[in-house]
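cron nightly-structures :: item 1 of 1
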Amino acid sequence: MDKRTKRMLSAVLISVFIFAYEVQPAFCRPAPKNGVQKEFYAKGKVRLVSKHKDGHLVRRRVYFRNGRLMLDFRYKNGELYSKIIFWENGQLKNKWTKKSGVEEYYSQTGRLKASFKR
């Protein structure tokens, strides 16, 4: 598999992952107008923390079962502004900001694998 195909496959997998963790919780219950909304794993550890202001999602964090941060998404005016995704070992996996437009992918050891402008 060439580099371009791997990068495209990685982007598709991340999109599916984001759908599973971003869209699904939105259907569970209505979001608060202001404040923090939390969801928990069965054993009581935090799974998801969403912060809302004036009825808009401002930030969403999703955690692995081990308690480490998995996703950190920030929103401005209802649109995704930045995203940071981590491997389960705590290493950075992917980051992107709307301001720079550059998306970077990292290996599980923290080494930069790919970088491109979106």
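cron nightly-structures :: done
The mean pLDDT is 84.
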